[in-house]
Amino acid sequence: MDKISPLAETQAINLESNFQGKKRWLMTSAADNGFRQLTKILAILLLGLVITLLISMIYSSRLSISQFGFSFVFSSTWDPVKEVFGALPFIYGTLVSSLIALAFAVPISLGVAVFLTEQCPIKLRPVILTLVELLAAIPSVAYGLWGIFVLVPFMREVVNPVLGKTLGFLPLFQGPAYGIGLLTSGLILAVMIVPITTAISVSSLTAVDPTQREAALALGATRWEATQIMLLNARSGILGGVILGLGRALGETMAVTMVIGNRPEIAASLLAPAYTMASVIANEFAEATYDLYLHALIEIGVLLFILTFIVQGLAQLLIRQITKGTKSNA
Amino acid sequence: MRKFIDKLVFGLCSLSTVLVLGILFLILIYILLNGITSVNLDFFTQLPKPVGEEGGGMANAILGSAIMVVIATIISVPVSLAAAIYLAEFGRGKIAVITRFMVDVLAGVPSIVIGIFIYTIVVLPMQRFSAIAGALALAMIMVPTLVRATEEAIRLVPQTVKEAGLALGAPYWRVIIEIVLVSAHKAIISGILLAIARVAGETAPLLFTALGNRFFVKVLDRPIASLPVQIYTYAVSPYDDWHRQAWAATFLLVMFVLLINLSVRYVTRNKSS
C-alpha cells in the first residue's frame, strides 16, 4: 500500500497537467469508450479462438469422420497401410495410463496435503509446498528423458520381474519385462500430477473452518479422527483437484510417448506396450502420407479435446462449488 | 488401538511427503549429474553434426527456442493484457462470464491439440512448417496463464488508487494504463516470466508446427529447430553421443525453468510479507 500511493500520486499529477478544459474532457470520454471497446473486442477474440479451434479441427478431420462415423471410436484396428483407422486402442491407453496415475497420485497427494496442513511446522510449509510445485515446472520432455534412461531400466530389471514373481498369476502382470508400457507411463504421469492434486487439496483443507478440528479434538477424538472431519469438509475441493489432475494426465504427451512403447494394441497386461491418443498424434502426424491418415489423426485430436473439455469443466465446477460452500459454512 | 492408527496414518503421511521430495531430488540429481558431464563449449556454439559423427552442438536449437519464445511473448502479452483489463475492470455481463470460462477451457486444452489447431489454420494454408507457426502455438498456450495472472494482479490494486486518479480528472483509460498497470507491474511481470518458463519447455505443439531444422534459420517462414524438440529427437535416437547432448540440453532447459520459478517465488514472497 505505502509503496503504491506515492507512485500513483506522481502519475496522477502528470495526468492532471495533460487534461484541462472541457473539450479535452469530451474527447477523452470518447477515448474511454474506444478503450473499453478495444479490450472487449480482444476478450471476445479469445472466445472466438476456442470456437474456431473446434470448428477448424472438425473440418480438417472431415474425411475420417465421414468414412468411419461412430465406428471410429469403437474399432480397434489402426492400420495405415490398409487405410483402416480405429481409435479404441488409443482411448484405452489414454484412460488406463491416466487411471494408474490417479491410483498412485491421489493417496500420495492426500498424504502430503495432510502432512502439510496437520503435522508440518508452519515455517516449513511454504518451503515444502514450493518444492512439490517445482515438480510441475519441470518440462514434460525432461520427464521423458529421465523415464527412458532411469525409470525404464529400473522397471525392466527390478519392478517387472518382482511383479511377475509375486502377482504373476494375475493377467494384469504377465508377459515379458520390456520396462516400457502402461505401468511405467502411469508412474511418470503420477509424478507429474502430484503437484496439482496436492496444491488444490492443501488449499481446500486450509479453507475448512479450523474450529471443526478443534471441536473434534475437544470431544476426545484423536488427531487422525479430527483430520477425517477436515477431509470430509474439503471433499469437493479435493475431488476437483483429482479431476484436474486427471485432465492433465489425459492430455500429457511427451513423457508418455517416450516410455509407453507406442504399440496400438489392447493387451490385458499393464506391463505390455500400449499407445495413447496424444502419443499417436505426436508420433505419426508428421509422417501421415495421405489425407485420410492425417484426418484420422486430427479426429483423435478432436476426441482428446472433447474428453479434456468435459473433465476440465467438471473440475472447475467442483472447485468453484467448494470455495462457495466453505464460505457459506463458515 | 486408536492411538496406533493415529500414529500409523501420520507416519504414512510423512512417508509420502518424503517420497515426493525424494523423487524430485532424484530427477534433479540425474539431470544435474548427466548434464554437467555432457555440457561443453561446442554444445553452445556448434551446429549438429551429420548422423553418426561425434560432437557438434545445439546452437541453432537454442537460438530457435529463443526466437519463438520472444515472438510468442510479443503476440500474447498485449492480447492477454487487454482481455484481463476487460475482465477485471469492465466485464460484468454474459460476455465476461463466457470469456472467463473459455480462458479456463483454453488452459486445460492439451498442448498437442493446440499444435494440431495451428497446423490446420497456419501450416496447411502456408503449405510449410515455419517458425511463425511454432511461435503462434506457444503464444496460444501462454494466453490463459497470462490472462489469469494479470486479472488477479489488476484486482489487487486498491480501488482508492483508481479513484484518486479519476478525481484528478484523468480519463479511465489513462488511469488503467498508467496507474493500475504500473501499480500491478510486479505481479504482471511475474506472470509473464512464469508463462515463458512454461512454454520454453513445450515440445508437443512444436512437433508439427516448427518441425525442426539442422541449420540456422534466417527467415521466419521456414522450419526452425528448438531445444525441446531436439531433446526428444536425440533421446529416442540410438546414438550415445546424441543421448549425451539430450542430457546437456535438458540440463540447460531445466536450469532455466527452475531459475525463473524460484526467483519469481522469491520476489513475490518478499512483497507479500
Structural class of chain A: mainly alpha
CATH topology label of the largest domain in chain A: MetI-like fold
Radius of gyration of chain A: 26 Å
* Elements of chain B, N to C (H/E): HHHHHHHHHHH
Largest interface, counted by CB within 8 Å of the partner chain's CB: A-B, 101 and 104 residues
Gap from first CA to last CA of chain A: 28 Å
Helix content of chain B: over 70%
Question: How many angstroms separate the termini of chain B?
Answer: 43 Å
Q: Assign the CATH superfamily of the largest domain in chain A.
A: MetI-like
Helix content of chain A: over 70%
Which parts of chain B are unreliable, with pLDDT below 50 for 5 consecutive residues or more? none
Largest sheet of chain B: none
> CATH class of the largest domain in chain A, please?
Mainly Alpha
CATH architectural label of the largest domain in chain A: Orthogonal Bundle
The CATH superfamily of chain B appears as: MetI-like
Task: Provide a short characterization of the protein structure.
By secondary structure, chain A is mainly α. Chain A is built from 14 helices and 2 strands. Chain A has a two-stranded antiparallel ribbon with strand order 1-2.
Structure commentary:
The complex is a heterodimer of chains A (330) and B (273). Helices cover 77% and strands 1% of the residues of chain A. Chain A is mostly helical and 330 residues long. The longest helix of chain A has 39 residues, at 291-329. Chain A starts with a helix and ends with a helix. Chain B is mainly α. Chain B has one domain (41-272): MetI-like fold, CATH 1.10.3720.10. Chain B has helices at residues 2-38, 41-45, 59-90, 94-108, 111-126, 131-155, 159-167, 172-183, 185-200, 227-235, 240-272. Chain B is globular, with a radius of gyration of 23 Å. The two termini of chain B are 43 Å apart. Chains A and B meet through helix 1, helix 2, helix 5, helix 6 and helix 7 of A and helix 1, helix 3, helix 4, helix 5 and helix 6 of B.
